[in-house]
Every structure is written in structure tokens, then in C-alpha cells.
Amino acid sequence: MRVLFFGEEISSNFIKEYYSEKGEDAEITCTGKIPRISADAVISQNQYTNIVIDVSMLVDEVNDVVKNLLIISRAGRGANHIIIYAPGFSPVSDMIIKLTESDGCFTKFILSKDLAGQKMDWHKCITGQSISPIANMQLPTVIARKTEDKPKPTAPVYRGTQSIAVVGACNRIGTTTQALQIVKCLQYKGYTAAYIETNNTRYVENLKVVYESMIDVDLQMGRVTYSGVDMYNKPEYIGRIRSLYDFLVYDCGVFQDEQKHSYFDKDYCVVVCGFSPSEAGATSNTVKKTMYNDTYFIFSFCAPDEEDGINDLMDDRAGRTGFAGYTPDPFMFSTSNKLYSSIFTVNDKKEKKGGKRGWSFLKK
Known about the structure:
By secondary structure, this protein is α/β, with parallel strands linked by helices. It is built from 13 helices and 14 strands. About 30% of the residues lie in helices and about 20% in strands.
């Protein structure tokens, strides 16, 4: 068990005692008291089994704290890996209510003030027994609080969902990775986004098998959720869920001429390309076929010293060309990566660089 504790070492004693009493080893890393937690500081720590955040030390307003924690949840592995340490907080305090009712669905809390209670809370968190703390409150109290704080329900409002097609120039070029990274980027920016599988790779089905104990499945809606990402692989459900998200990201698999209309009828089209000898030919053909469309190009598995040469070959498409960073886990988004922000920025219009003469990917 490896635990990262955002807080003072003395506050983490209940974890040490818990494992000491069980005769088990646990590696606990404490950051010390910090007034604010950056998203990068949490998201990058994917080597830890659980991340504990002491919200009592944070100085920002409640709404800002909740917003930041939601960003961390969306861009990282989801709220299931985050435990909120809030000793002495009431289950109906603003902080706890807003966390339990947020889109991040935080369910793991340490609210007890005494050592014995904290060890019991910890046991529930790591064994999957922890649920929303307001569920243990007397029903009249909870209802009164919710009625007072929440506005009357209104009919769902269609948010004008935007669509993004992600298609690869060839097989095994990182198309699914880029589609998932785009979803995580949009979540990080505060949008709701879902991954739609429209290819024959059976990625979602295989993920259900491998991570059976770590996913949430809604058969009625045809949804599989893993690491904070809602995924769908049944086209017949798209009409039912479209209005639930700000963005739908379609993983279209390998580029096919007969399917071009399904790529270009989306609000955005992203082509994932490569520069190796086995990828360059397919990339060149795909770029030619999309030269008259507002398409973006992402190159995978390219060394930094190859980027200038690729931009030269992309000619007047260089302004719409980017390079993917190293991504060992497609469900973990690096907030330092500016690639996707340059593509999915409202009214973003990059100036096209002047093309160079000679051979290029665009040349017919």
C-alpha cells in the first residue's frame, strides 16, 4: 500500500497505526502543510494506491476548493482514488455536501476527530464500504438541507453538444490514446465529455474484462465508466445521451474513404499520424484526402528533433499540426501538455505558416 498524504505528517498517524496493528507494511509520503493544491501535483502521482487530501488546511473558498478537486478527479484516475480528510467536518457542511453532490462523486471521507474513528473511516475507504456521509444522517435532516440549498428541478436543457472525430492514418498509431486524452483534457478544462467507440477494436469490451472490478456499468444507457471517463460502444444509444455532455469524442479507428462523411460531419476532425517508414505512406495519403477540410493533425511517437522536419513536410498544414507527448496511461492527462488546448480553444485560429517548396505530405 502506497499512500500520498497532502497534509502534515502528524495528521497521517491514523494510517500508520492502522497498518501497524494489522502487521502490514505501508509507505506513507506526506507533503507537509500547504495552503493550496495544484492539479499537477495530484494528477502526476499515479504511483500511489490512494491519495489523501487534508481539506482543512486549504485556504481558498469552498467553491474554489471543490472546483479544483473536481478538476483533479476528472483529469486523473477519478474520485475513487481520492480520500478527503476533513476531521470534525459535519456531513452537512458546505464542503462535504458540495463534494458528495458534485459530478466527481466523491464518496471516501475521513470525518472522525478521534484516532479510533479515523482508523474505522480509513478501513471503510480502502475496502469499498465508504459511501456518501450524508447517507448515514437522519433522513429529515438531509431532506431539509437539500430542500433549502437546491433550486427546484427544471427540465433538462440541451447544451449544444459538440462532436470530435479522431481517426488514425493506420493501425496501432495511438488513435484511441489520443481520443481518451482529448476527453481528459476537456474534463480538465471543466467540460463534460464522453468517449464513443465507432470502430471494430472492441476496446471498451476488452477494458470491461480486464478491469471488471474497477469499472461502473449502466446497461440501460450502454455506458462503461473507468477512471472518470464515460465510454459508449453502441451507436444506437448516442441519441439518448447526446444532451448529457458538452463534447462527444468519437474514436473512428483507421481512416477509410467510404467513411469520410462520418469524420467531416463532426465539429472537429483530428487525424492521428506517424512518421516511421511503416506509417509515412499512410499518413501522406490521409493528409492529401483531408487537405480541403479544417482538420487537425497529431503526430504520435515522434522525437523532438523530427518536429521541424515534419512541419516542413506538412506545408501549409503546419499551423494545424501538433505532436503528442509520451503517454503511458491514456487515462492520465498531463496538465502541462498544451497540444489539445491549441486545438480546442473557442475561436482559436492559428496563422498558417508559409509552405516550403519541394516534396511534402500534401503534394499530389
